[in-house]
Every structure is written in C-alpha cells, then in structure tokens.
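Why Tyrosine--tRNA ligase? Reviewers of the renewal asked for a concrete example.
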Amino acid sequence: MTKNFIEELRWRGMLHDAMPGTEEYLLEQMRSAYVGFDPTADSLHIGNLVPIMLLAHYQRAGHKPFALVGGATGMIGDPSGKSAERNLLDEKTLRHNQEAIKAQLSRFLDFESDASNAAVLVNNYDWMKEFSFLDFIRDVGKHITVNYMMAKDSVKNRISSESSEGMSFTEFTYQLVQGYDFLHLYRDHDCTLQMGGSDQWGNITTGTELIRRIAGGKGYALTCPLITKSDGSKFGKSEGGNVWLDANRTSPYKFYQYWLNTSDEDAEKYIKIFTFLNKEEIESLIVEHKEAPHMRILQKRLADEVTVIVHSQEDLDNAIKASNILFGKSTSADLKDLDEATFLDVFDGVPQAEISGSMIDNGLDIIGALAEHTGFLKSNGEARRALKENSISVNKEKVTEGFSISSKDLINNQFVLLQRGKKNYFVIRVV
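Here is what the prediction returned.
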C-alpha cells in the first residue's frame, strides 16, 4: 500500500513543483522514480542530502527508487547553476566514485532486501558508452528542436550577454543526454518519474518530452526547492569548503558542529527536510524550542538525527563528547579519548607551539611551558601570577607552580592542552 508521498513532501517544505496529475498517479500503485547524482568525487556532500531524502521518503511511501550515478554526464558536466565547465573523469575513477556513493546512499535507502520496492543503483555510462555520436543525433537529437533547448533557463542564463564564459556545444547537449537517461529508464525499468532540485526542471522536462515523442508514453517531473540559509550564505559550505558525508573529508565532529550552529529560523526548516521525525514530533519540538530558544533544542535534535543517519550513534557520542570539551565540564580522560583528527578539529584555530620530545622526557616545568618555551603567556612573572590565582589547567586539570609536564600527560602521544581561565587555550605539540 502506497502512502501519499506528495503530501509528505508538502508539509516538510520539500515540494517546489510537480507536473499536473503527479499526486494522483503516485497514489494508484507502486511507481519507479529516479534522481541523478554527480560522481565527480568519491563522496556526496550535504548539498546532495535533499535529493537523497526525496528518494528515502519515496521508498518509505512504498515506491521504488532508482539512484542514477551520472558516469556519462559526469564526463560532460551539467550547465545548470554553473558558470563554468567542470573537469572530466576517466572510467576507473568514475567506478571508484560510484561504489563510494552507493555505500553512502545505502545509509538512507534499502538496496539489499527482497522487497519489490528495493532501491536500484544505475550508471548512465553503461548505456551511453556504446552509443555512437551519429546514432545519438539521429535517434534522439532529431526529436527535440533547438528552439525548445534554447528556451531552457539553464541555457538562456549561460548564453546571455552577461555571461562572459559562453557555453560549449558539449554542455548544450547535456539536457539531451539527461533526457535520454529518463527515456532509457522509462523503457527498461518502467521508471515514470524523475525528481531533482528546482534548477533541474528544464533537464527533467526534456526527458518527459522525449518519452512522449519517441516512446509515445507519459513521464512525470517533480522538483524540490534549492536550500538556502536565512543569512544569505550558501547552504552546505563551511569555511573549509563543502561539508562532505565522508568522515575522512569532513570529520563527524565538524559535521555535527555544522548542524548545531544552524540559526533558529533555519533549524525549524531543516529539521523537517533532513530528518525522518514525524509531523507531531517536529511540531512539539518547535513549540518546546520557542519556549526556551537558548536551550537550542531544535539544533541539538537536528544535529543528533543527521549525524546518526550519515555516520553512526558512536560517531555522534564522540562528537558530543568532543563538543563538551570546549563548552562543558570534561576531564583529562575525555581528552585522551579523542583521536588525533578530532582533537585537531576541536582545537582548530587555537594557538600552538612545538617543543622537542626530549624536553618532555626530562619533565617540563609548568612555568617554562607557559612562557619561555611556548610564548602562551608573556613572561615567567605572568605565569607565576596566573598559577597563584589558580587559573591554569593542563589537560583540563588545575595545576600549581611545582607541576611539571611529562610523557604521561600527552594526548595521543603528542599533544598537551594548556588553559588559562575558561576560554584561553593553547596546544603544545611534541615533535
């Protein structure tokens, strides 16, 4: 029994546009739909989460999702929303990226079960690689007029007088290749709906047009809004660039922090889009949040949910523990639990100094560690005063003037965390 997928998208704020009749069509029986993903990297990023959630809700509503990895289109580059061409990849890299992307998608979609609506991964390179140029322009190109292609926003914006780049023929043909994907999936897999971001509407409707003209059938189109942030900055970017789903590219700690730092306005929108929480649960969280905004209830729940889905419960627990080190009450034992990457993420931007291992082996007196050898404090006198005021901690534990740092104090065999007062941190790195 299928649930009302469109209704689900509507209350979540995930519906931008749908072809007339789509809602009724999906309520009749199980249908197949696809979303395309760009395989130019071996990881998706959080900008891809909305189309991933579209497929996940689609499967949960009882329908069959297809994830299309654009191996062929990745070799060309999609002009939608881009002002320049992208780099082209070789087949080996594309295959590696495809496997990595499938592993990430399988945290949201069921590819493995025997259910009739199990998800399927396809790569358009598999049906495009044998297609000769002459065959393509004869069998596909003749059905779509240049006037039709020129009318699309993705084309108009690139060849307008404002665009200095212009547009290559390769990119101009992109919508035909994407349109052909839809036709191919329609014929071979009875796939009758394509979904994507609102900037994909032109490419998707080229596919429905090909299905109508070549196969005499009917295809449907559905798009979701492009996600924005209330302050106007780009969603999915941090100071270091993209926020990736791969833990090696963006650590679970940084991933968790990205969601935790969402504004109230955005958190209310994002918790509907990026979690599977139901309507009642979300509405009560919103009410609770508004009664005590300083508790950041929405942000915490959003960060928890997304981190567990993309990474794991263990990664979430570690990210929370790491977050508490800066802002909460934590101990030297908590610090020593951090792996090197997370430690460096937590103390990113904190001043550092390097000292040699032999100094630690012989025991480094605290005054030298605070002033002469690191420059954390300006002078030995200042160091003594701070120690008398009981404001100095080593690895989160208060120390006095007689203390010396030894190898047992090292975090990950290489770091020592100095702290003056609540907020002044300094990292010694032993080399």
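The chain has a mean pLDDT of 91. This is the kind of structural detail the renewal will allow us to pursue systematically.
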